[in-house]
Amino acid sequence: MDTADVLVGADGIGSAVRRRYLPHVRVTDSGRRMLMGATPLRAAAGLPELIGDSPAVVRVGGTMMALGVLRFTESPLTARERWLPSLRPGAVAGIEDYVMWALPTTREGLDSAGSPGDRARELAAELHPALRAVAAQAWPDVTVALRIGTIPPMPAWPAGPVTLLGDAIHLAPGFGGNLAIQDAHHLCEALVEAHRGRLDLLDAIGSYEDIMRRTGFPSVPAKAGA
């Protein structure tokens, strides 16, 4: 069976290959912004009872907050010892259950002075006390302001021995890891078909990329008269 390369990540090699394959595609600034961060679950008393364990969206007036509770089923230190013992222990020391959250806003909404954490606290001021605590107690070093871009509809590109997944190809602020796992699942299914001789390698990669385009990009409008 032939080999193929998969590139993950929005920067470096991934973005360079994307520019080579899709030089005509440009990310357009939508004008929308998002404040995103993470907060220790211990600092968000009552939150699981308020929103449950599934991702939730709360709206109060003109403010919206999206949240998701993450509880580790296994201690990160134990998982490191089991799956990645070469990783230095300090890389996972202190990691604990947390709440991932996002506060959509606008470009104008970030114009005022202050850190992303300051703006998050201001935006959450009218929310439930448990949600205000999420913004107030967030880890400062992972509270960021993100620009929301859009990619125009694009036609299929020829499949080759290099493909992309996750943030290397999708516009998904804060959720690139989720999309990378989803893409990896579809790519694995396609490569299994190639390994079993049901598809040529490039056909398998093309099949994966067709799924990726359908699930991750706007559809290409049909031409008039087509």
Tell how many strands the DSSP assignment holds. Answer: 7
What fold name stands as the CATH topology of the largest domain? Answer: D-Amino Acid Oxidase, Chain A, domain 2
Shape: globular
CATH architecture group name of the largest domain:
2-Layer Sandwich
Main structural class: alpha+beta
Task: Spell out the helices and strands N to C.
Answer: EHEHEEHEHHEEHH
Between the first and last Cα atoms, what is the distance in angstroms?
38 Å
Question: Can you characterise this structure?
Answer:
This protein is α+β, with helices and mostly antiparallel strands. The chain has 2 domains: 89 residues, FAD/NAD(P)-binding domain (3-Layer(bba) Sandwich), CATH 3.50.50; 119 residues, 2-Layer Sandwich (D-Amino Acid Oxidase, Chain A, domain 2). The strands form 2 sheets. The chain has a 5-stranded antiparallel sheet with strand order 3-4-5-2-6. The chain has a two-stranded parallel sheet with strand order 1-7. The two termini are 38 Å apart. The N terminus and C terminus are likely disordered.
Please name the defining characteristics of this protein.
226 residues, alpha+beta, FAD/NAD(P)-binding domain, D-Amino Acid Oxidase, Chain A, domain 2, 2 domains, five-stranded antiparallel sheet, two-stranded parallel sheet, 22% strand, globular, disordered N terminus, disordered C terminus
In short:
This protein has 226 residues and is of the alpha+beta class. It has helices spanning 13-21, 47-51, 76-83, 116-123, 129-136, 176-195, 201-216; strands spanning 5-8, 28-40, 56-60, 63-70, 98-106, 144-150, 162-165. A hairpin with a 2-residue loop joins β3 and β4.
